[in-house]
Amino acid sequence: MDEEYDVLILGTGLTECILSGLFSVEGKKVLHMDRNKYYGGAATSLCPLENLYEKFGKGSPPESMGRGRDWNVDLIPKFLMASGKLVQLLIHTNVTRYLQFKSVEGSYVLREGKINKLPSTAKEALGTSLFGLLEMRRFKNLLQYMAKYSAEDPTTHEGCPPTVPMTAVYDKFGVGSSSRDIIGHAISLHTTEDYLRLPCLETIKRVQLYYESISRYGSSPYLYPLYGLGELPQGFARLSAIYGGTYMLDKPIEKIEQVDGKIAVTSQGETVIGKMIVGDPSYFPDRVKKVGQVVRAICILSHPLPNTSDSLSCQIIFPQNQVKPPRRHDIFVCCVSYAHNVAGNGKFLAIVSTQVETSNPEAELQPALNYLGVIDEKFVEVSDLYEPKDDGKESKVFISKSYDASTHFESTCNDILDIYERVNGKEFKFGDPVNVETVCGE
Asked: Which domains does the chain have, with CATH numbers?
């Protein structure tokens, strides 16, 4: 036991790499290890395409897929909200200097059997078939109310303080089921109807984030990095390295134990000591609990998704009450393409996901798969969802949550900021961006 670190980190998922970067910037001595030979952990982007076929036991890709190195296939699909917490973290740390993003071209929702674009401009709102004229007026009034709503300013509440359930706000404005579906699932991005009984403030904040994000680029609230999501953890790993963090890939972990109030980790016969440890659930099977499963289907297409105006990227949300048979959880489709340097020329990647509710997970995706058109190849995986059994404050073992079925990073960022607060005993503050250029000497 020859060297001691302030923080040991296991796994190179986005959560762990962001925390590694933040801790290193603060001057903590960080050692970051992963059993894999690549960054990203469970949320990596596989390149070349041969790696994807090998992972799912499908032999070699056909020649029609083009060059394997042109592919970077995300195993867990997510978009970034343009004004969301992950973008704030990227700007705060200047990790944006390592990445390039494209705006996702559109956001769509299933309503009464048809794929409809969510209006992103006043002109689109007037032409949408999602609402009748009377419902459109009620919908517009409700959105205007939410836009100016402030928890700290009672004059904006109009009889609906932050603690009333969301159903009370809907009832106040007399909106129908179409407006409730659009606001609850396609805009505020709740995955079940549970939010209806919860305080309205959370939903209102989500709506405000959605439209603030749209105002940045106009077509949708989402961004996506060129070359895939695997670029994100690598960017934060570079940040950590700049500030003295040490990374070790291909390091199988043989033992994790507590010694004299500290954490000892043994890998390949060598042991290191840390004052605390942070890691993903796969490294701590005895300290986590299973809370569900997610099923995902990675689909390779030779065409854009039908009814999306030939978009090179988009999201489609299938609200749980719009599919047959009705479900408890929504189904999501994330589509990106060759335009993002993640697929061969002319190819598209559509990843369908939802939380598992039955003993036949793949069949649960079928209502969305039916809308994709011809599928060249499909790869299906079911993943367990884990959460830590405790907050780690006493044991100094801080464990992240598994990636959920949602198609954005807000829940992941909430987990990151929660772990940060538990580790440091204080809330993370978004302040002036870190001056990485000065550190680099550029």
From this structure: 4-43+230-289+388-440 (3.50.50.60), 52-105+290-385 (3.30.519.10), 119-217 (1.10.405.10)
